[in-house]
């Protein structure tokens, strides 16, 4: 198992069980305890988990990993979700992409869609679309204060979004539960995301399976607000039942080779 795969497996285990022990991980992966401790140190520095004596636990509801830290997680899942979400976009549409690594992956799938107007508060999304420089594509960057996830948020961003009318919003989220809905660990980013939701005719949430039962401190929207939720086929049957009942449409996409290894 590669280090990147081991890191993803550790994070999955922490989310499911709430905590892991160094000795158990070392035995499971067939590596030394020192290697596991280095893995936990790295994941802790990236804000993806909290180190404790002898192991690690889930990070808190206000912990906010940076864009680069999140970009290495669930890569296969994000690619599959983005490719399917891109099929929902029609030429000539006015759409918005919120900040996030899955929405950034979606941007890569949209560079060849003609006559799009794309509103975003994500610097990576704007960069991806700008690099292609298509004359028939308009990119509107909201402005605002930059967050660890490379989002532009705050009054400037909210003010810009409130003047717009959009066909579709593709929303990336930090967490999803039946009780809290769609959430983020950043209070100001939540406000900007709520403005994006209000500006769009339809809401499409992009979320891989690890977002289920993860909670951020600030709510963006209830589950029923989503017209479509696109996720991957590692989402549990119980979660699929809940989401199928609550969102307008649940799209579950297969991930080649089973996605990121546990």
UniProtKB/TrEMBL annotation:
Annotated GO MF terms: DNA binding; DNA-binding transcription factor activity
PROSITE patterns reported in the protein's UniProt record: HTH_DEOR_1, HTH_DEOR_2
Classification via Gene3D superfamilies: 3.40.50.1360, Winged helix-like DNA-binding domain superfamily/Winged helix DNA-binding domain (1.10.10.10)
Record-annotated HTH deoR-type domain positions: 3-58
Keywords: DNA-binding, Transcription, Transcription regulation
UniProt xrefs under InterPro entries: Carb_Metab_HTH_regulators, DeoR-like_C, DeoR_HTH, NagB/RpiA_transferase-like, Tscrpt_reg_HTH_DeoR_CS, WH-like_DNA-bd_sf, WH_DNA-bd_sf
Coiled coil regions, renumbered to chain: none
Name by which UniProt lists this protein: DeoR/GlpR transcriptional regulator
